[in-house]
Amino acid sequence: MNMTTRRGFLAGAATSTLLLAGCNNGVSGRGPQTIEARVRSTLDFLYRTYPGVRDLASKSSGQLVMPLVTEAGLGIGGSYGRGALMVQDTVVDYYSSTQASIGLQIGAQQYAHVLFFMTDRSLYQFRNSPGWAAGADIEYAVNDRGGNLSAETTTSLSPVIAVIFGQAGLIAGATVRGAKYSRIIP
């Protein structure tokens, strides 16, 4: 790597870091009560906006709710958010989500997402890993033209279903593939 390439890389990394830091993801409160309140508010919004998701939730073994993830990038990008894992409508753990990316990108966006663990095995693997990376085993549920979203939208054989919603910002599209989830103590 020559000196010009290193400087460009460092400049891109510094710019992305500043963009990400400048976008307050709204999860800056440190206490578990703050995270839990945001998680419950996010679920209420999701269920009001897409009532069919309640059926998906009732069939799942657990849900990881990330109320607000902030993503920013300028060549090099990243995202960060905090949330909670719920099992039978009870918060059992707190998690952070981080993601790094490189490529043609510029801008910032914020969004919420919920991972529905559709099998006991997928929930067990998530809870017992030191840092779980979202990969190809995730099925994305998307809303149809009528704004409906339900368990029938995706195959019931998927171990994890991701629902991404509430997007706002200047980067097109959001995905959790490549995101790393780590247990935190708020």
Question: What descriptive keywords fit this protein?
Answer:
186 residues, 6 strands, globular, Ysc84 actin-binding domain-containing protein, Ysc84_actin-binding
Structure description:
- This protein is of the alpha+beta class and 186 residues long.
- It is 28% helix and 40% strand.
- Strands 1, 2, 3, 4, 5 and 6 form a 6-stranded mixed beta sheet that branches.
- Strand 1 and strand 2 form a beta hairpin.
- The chain is globular.
Summarize the helices and strands and which ones pair or pack.
Elements: H1 3-22, H2 32-49, H3 53-59, E1 62-87, E2 90-117, H4 120-127, E3 132-133, E4 138-141, E5 160-169, E6 180-184
Overall geometry comes to globular
Estimate percent helicity.
25-40%
Mean pLDDT: 77
Number of H/I helices: 4
Summarize this, please?
The protein has 4 helices and 6 strands. The chain has 186 residues and is an alpha+beta fold.
